[in-house]
Amino acid sequence: MHEKAHFLWHYVFSSEMKKEWLQLSQWYRVDSDESVDDYLSLPPYSSEVVESGPRHSHGTEYNPDLENISVDASDGWSAVKTTNFVSGYAQLKNPNEDMAESISYFLNNPDKLRSRAPQKYEFIRNRIMGGIFYLQSIRDDLTFEVLNLHPDYIYPGKIKQIEVTVNGEAGQSKRVTIDLRLHTTKSTCQLDKCLEGASSAFTRIFSQGDTYKDVYFRPVGGRISDHLQASFTLPETAKNGWWAPEQITITDPLGNERYQRSTDYGWQMFINNPGEDTVAPQYIDESMMLELSDPIAAKISLGKRVGTYPEGCIGQADCREIRTITAQWDVDEDVGMREDFACFSRFANQDYSVYSADEYGEFTQQVNGEIDGRCSVQLVTTEYYRSGKYSVAQIVMQDRALNRQSERFAKGNSELEASPEKSLPIGANVDTEAPELNISNCNAPDDSRCIKVVATPTNPDQPNGETKVTITYWAKDDKSGLGTVSYKLRNPQGDEYLYYAYHDNMDTLFFNGDPTAWKEYTTTQTLPVGSAPGKWGVISMTLLDKAGNKAEYDFTDTVIFEPIEVK
Q: Which site among 2, 83, 95, 178 is 20 to 30 Å from 279 CA-CA?
């Protein structure tokens, strides 16, 4: 889609169409005083190739007095509007990416584009698609009504004040507190009296060395507020100097989002860490080792591993054999690795269509006390796992100072190291089939195993959007059994929400029961107060079994409307 967008810019759009698109969100250049006409000769409109530099710049070239520390990841573009976008990415980058995202939603989720940016929807329909437009319908029996007498279609207020407090001396860890104050038109901002308030906010702050920290804000004093706050700790080894966000996303309970860049507010956050660690942990070349264990007799209770039988499984009814594949590699680190999730490995089967297995492991310092050490990540396999060669596709390491290093491995690539391989023996119960969901309509008289959704307002006398949603479905697997189940709901504005359908066997190593028998499952989710009124629906479900096989079910249909020429 994004390649097609570039083609449209350079070869289809006229200068007038480009300028019209610029005006829809009032895009402008932050690093230039050129006129709109001159913008058309600058990236991304020009076809010239621009060499890419660092991922983020703190903008000091244009702000030598450090009055407002900003992060620029947008090729020098910014937009006046902060709510006229289908995604934060569209607002963060540039007009070209904005158009690509908008066209993608025009085709795949037109409700969201029409509700968030109606003028862009009309522009694409009339100027690009020649009047053709798309509608997406959800299977009727999987839709439900949400009632709300006081719907909130007002976006959270703009940021009017940011206060950053950093506590900690040089050489100490820093406790950072960030307060966001939003503009509201009312003096009180609590619950339904604060339609311009927010229930959460998110940003990713970057150092001048491009390390980053994800920051989550929560309302102060209630579920909704015009005052949001976040607190976190940065270690004494984190990057010294200025830290700043590339974008702040502010959200209310209904899902209305406002995206604000550093061109909209002032920001200063300085971390005084003279003992900074700016060197990421390094993988030691040719140190990757892969080990396949002998069969392990695991004691299983309710599908979970609770112990080991040293003498084997003979005579033990609650015993199952497992094997572990362990990836180990040496790490060169200057100061110290983080305490948890320091090591990550992606294991891959020789059949690349198989769902890869991502696992976190631990870092162990060398016995002599040096910072250098070894990462160890383990994948537990059962009799249901595919046989064949297993290898490591990628590893990621992170130290205490938030420096990250990633390494990829590939066989037959002269630029990448090849991972060792271990062959999992062929077993009698290898599971290569995905689990099955019965998608029959419950209104059909001949099938009691079906999928249905029931929605009930929690406050029927004065409905406020809070709704209890219950999904009942039937599923089975051919061998290993049902594992992780997730589903997506879509509201009338096109906003989508991912939920997990928890069940007794979701997190177990083995399926407790008969995995091949159809079984009824029920999952319940309560939509929050303020949820959008109107027709919602289940748009998809994804099922994984205990061997990593995946089944995806889509309950939407796309209808294309083409204008008819009347002669």
A: 178
